[in-house]
Amino acid sequence: MDAVATPPASTKTSLTQRLSQHAHRRWPALAHVEVRFRAKFAHVNGQLPDGHSLPLCRLRYAESASIWGFAIYRDHLPGQPRRPPRQHPASLTISRGGDGTVTSTV
Question: Which of 2, 35, 55, 80 could hold 73 in an S-S bridge, CB 3.0 to 4.6 Å?
């Protein structure tokens, strides 16, 4: 069995800082961003000022601090059951913006 590549502490810190800075600029309604790491995944939640936590996405470490796969959590509101992320088709295009953010188009 192959070992699972997990991000080093420096990459975890860098990712958390980048996501927090991005959220501060783009989503001022969020009180802060919470990032939890488990194996090669980073689970990202947005914390609202009233204390509710919204699952935003899951990032998959690709053995580089600048390359992450992602799955967006959709349609989840506090008190409602979580639905699994939808699968993206094979024709998914990923692009990097000038500020280092990554977007996708289908």
Answer: 55
